[in-house]
Design goal:
D-Maltodextrin-Binding Protein, domain 2; about 120 residues; alpha/beta
């Protein structure tokens, strides 16, 4: 099995080792550099669309996955995703066609206008 992943190596290696031990399936891992992690692998998947080499795509960046699905590059895997117990999140962490699913939440925040100079210190 060929796994393309942008997940941090210290997490990925343990999961892959456990999968190999449990399933007996050998995994060939293809990662990317820290600077180009998801973008480099995403572009590689798009470039390989006519002759895909990856069997599995695992990324911690959801928008690239959604982009791949929108381009028709992800096929349903026949895997039952983890149960989502929070009713507000059901149907929001997976594709209706089963081509991808989220299995962990990760908060991301970005300041819209940068940092203000001379801003007041937060109250203690």
């Amino acid at each position: 099995m060929v796994l393309y992943s942008s997940v941090d190596d210290f997490v990925l290696r343990d999961v892959v080792s456990a999968f190999e031990a449990e399933s007996g399936v050998k995994v060939r891992l293809l990662g990317d550099t820290e600077a180009t992690k998801t973008t480099g692998l995403l572009e590689r998947l798009i470039a390989e669309r006519d002759e895909p080499r990856a069997d599995v795509w695992w990324s911690s960046e959801p928008f690239g996955t959604i982009r791949l699905a929108g381009m028709g590059l992800l096929a349903p895997a026949g895997i039952t995703p983890p149960e989502i117990t929070d009713a507000a999140l059901r149907g929001r962490l997976d594709a209706a066609d089963g081509s991808w699913f989220g299995f962990a939440l990760r908060a991301r925040a970005r300041g819209a206008g940068g940092l203000r100079r001379g801003a007041a210190e937060p109250a203690a």
